[in-house]
Structure formats: C-alpha cells, structure tokens
Amino acid sequence: MEYIKKSTNIKTETSVATEQTVKDVIKDIQLNGDEAIHKYEKKFGNNDRTSLRLSEEEIESAIASLTDEQKSLIDNVVERVSNFAKAQLDCLLPLDRDFGDGIRLGHKLIPVETVGTYVPGGRFPLLSSGVMVAAPAKVAGVKRIIACSPANYNGSIHPAIIYGLKQSGVTEIFAIGGAQAIAAMAYGSESVPQVDVISGPGNRFVAEAKRQVFGEVGIDLVAGPSEVVVFADEFSKPDLIAADLLAQAEHDPNARAILIITSKELGENTMLEVEKLLEQFDENSPAHESWNKMGEIIVVDSIQEGIEVCNEFAGEHLHLHLKETEEAVEKIHNYGSLFIGENSSVVFSDKVSGTNHTLPTNRGGRYTGGLWVGSYVKVATFQEITGPGVNTLATHASRQSEMEGLEGHHLSAFKRKAQAEFSK
C-alpha cells in the first residue's frame, strides 16, 4: 500500500470546548425553556424572531414563492424516498408463534409516537435532507413529526425545505438551529414539544448535542462531515472519479474524499483531474480546503488488498469504480451505503434515488447502517404462558432462582407451578 496523497489534518474527536458549550446550552434550556432558546438563537444564529414556530401563514407564503417545477422536483424526492421506506417496512414482519405447548411468544412492530427531525441550514439549502429524515417516519406510522432548522433564509427557513417537510408529513416547523434545537426537542419547552426520537444530520454542535441527550431520547446516529471512499481499478476513468470525490468534498471543509486504486498511474492522473476541476470551483467552495487537507489517494497491490483497506475505512459512502464488482460486493462489509459501478453516483442517493443519505461516519459503518424506516419502529416482544407452558417454565425458573439465591424470583415462579399442578 502506498500513499500518493495523504491527509494532513484528520480530527474526529469532539473538542473539549465544543463539548462544554453544548453541555451549557442543554442545561440552560432544560432550566429556562424558550427564554434560553431565544438567547442562543440570537447568539449563534443572529435570529431574533419573536415566534420560534412557523405560522401556517408563513408556511403558505413560503410555499407560494416556489415554482411548479421546484415543487415537482421535491414531490419526486418525497415519492421515491417514501416508496423505498415502504419497501423496507414491508420486510419487517410481526411475530406470533408457539414455542412449546402453552408457550406463545412474539413481537409487535410499534411506531414511536413523536419524532423530532433536524434539517441543517449550512452553506447550501439541502432540499432532500428534510425529506430523508421525515418521510420514513411518516411511512413508519409516527403520529407526530416536528422539524427544526436554522432561520438563515430571510429570517426564516428556505421555502423549498419548508415544502419538502410539509409534503413528508411534518406538522410543526420551528426556526431553531444548532445544539439549542436538539436540546429543545429532547427536553421540550413552552413552544417546542418533547420528542421520543431525534434524527437528522448537522454540524459538530448538533452531533455533540445528540450524543449528550441520547438516553433521554433516542437518536438515529451521531454523524460527522461527509465521507466518500472510491475503490477503483486500472480500467477506471479519472475524470469520473475526480468528479465523485469533489461532489462530497464540497459539503464541508472537513469532508473526507478518499481514493483507493490498483493503478499508481491512474491515481496520479486522477489527482491531476481533481486539481484541474477545482480551478472551476468557486474560490469559497469548501471543496478546496477539504481536498487539500483531507483528501487521500492510496495505491493498493491488488483487489484483495483494496477490499481490506475499504473494510478498515468503513466509509460513509463506498463507490465501486471496478470493472468486476462481484468480489468486492461479496467481501466488503463495512460502509454506510454501497454504490455499485461507476455510474451509480453518490449524488443520486444524496438527491433522489430513494435510499437515505443520513449515514454513519468515523468508521461507524463497522457497527451500524444509516437512518431507515426501522429507526422509527420499536420491535417489542410479548409472551403469553398458559396451560402446560406454565408448569414447564415455572419448574425451570424456580430451580434456577434457587441456585441463584433469588428468593423473590423463586417465589413468583413456584406459586405459578403450584397453581398449575393444583388445576390439573
């Protein structure tokens, strides 16, 4: 393995300062509710709105500013994301089965009641982000879906984001960003309802806030800046690879764009292509800093070595620019989402294909997948023990409880055993 280009500044740990700032925000909002939310909105977002919640009139006015073409594009995203979520939900089945005479066990699929979705404001209005987090919740059957997003568009939220949220089933939209939005949804305030699950991507303050409130509420996952790993061979096209690397690099200065390739010559050609394409990017694009400090090109000796490196990176997006993909698909197990073949652009998933773009980063693909309809469904078990099943289980449970020295457990099981024998 050889590096043609190596990153110079990878920082994945949360800074002490960020952790403390978020902790202070959360505590203040717990104690002071809306007053504290307004304070941090003014401090961090220059938001001096009197109402945190968007009124129906404000929502209708924003939607009315969109063209039919804009609404049609967003409707297509909602439809495709919803259809994929429905297909996923169809794979989840309730269970109700006998596991012995008189021993009925199973599980139910129960949607959580209230979900809070977070939609980043960021440098660009990411029109699919709200749909990605909200539409699967609606498909899951969540009764109440609220959304928070920074008020960085003329003192409100971008109209296209508002429309996407409404079309995805969100009923309450709040102009709140950052850690204060996460704290508000986790603990509730005079204006913001407390939720059961918080989902959606965000900056380091949002990610840290989700980490800190986990347990008080559920979360989808803690995700950092975007990552793409492109795995290519000697048959790949440097111009396509370069475009795919930069598509993710432009998300954030700390985004990671990594190429793993079996040909040193093509790796070097790709680096030249990236540099040539960057000349066409706006000078303020995050892609410049991202590629300069975080971009990597790694030459591997074989497809097998490349597979091992991909599994080690566990990248958020893994794009296979390989002539033959079968072996890699079979043997690579660590990633957030897999893109098979050079034409399966990550951008398609970012925008409209239907799979979710809220995915694990920082090697999280080793232990979890991304946000999906199942993130909003509880798989809750049940049991009903009757007749012979009572005696079967009570005999075992009472003996085991005696061995463990648990008198209450023994008593509870023994009384059932005695009752079952009496009723014979």
UniProtKB/TrEMBL annotation:
Keywords: Metal-binding, Oxidoreductase, Zinc
Keyword Zinc: yes
UniProt superkingdom: Bacteria
Nucleotidyltransferase found in the keyword field: no
InterPro entries according to UniProt: Ald_DH/histidinol_DH, Histidinol_DH_CS, Histidinol_DH_monofunct, Hstdl_DH
One matching Pfam family: Histidinol_dh
Cofactor: Zn(2+)
PROSITE patterns: HISOL_DEHYDROGENASE (PS00611)
Family membership noted in the UniProt record: Belongs to the histidinol dehydrogenase family.
Protein name: Histidinol dehydrogenase
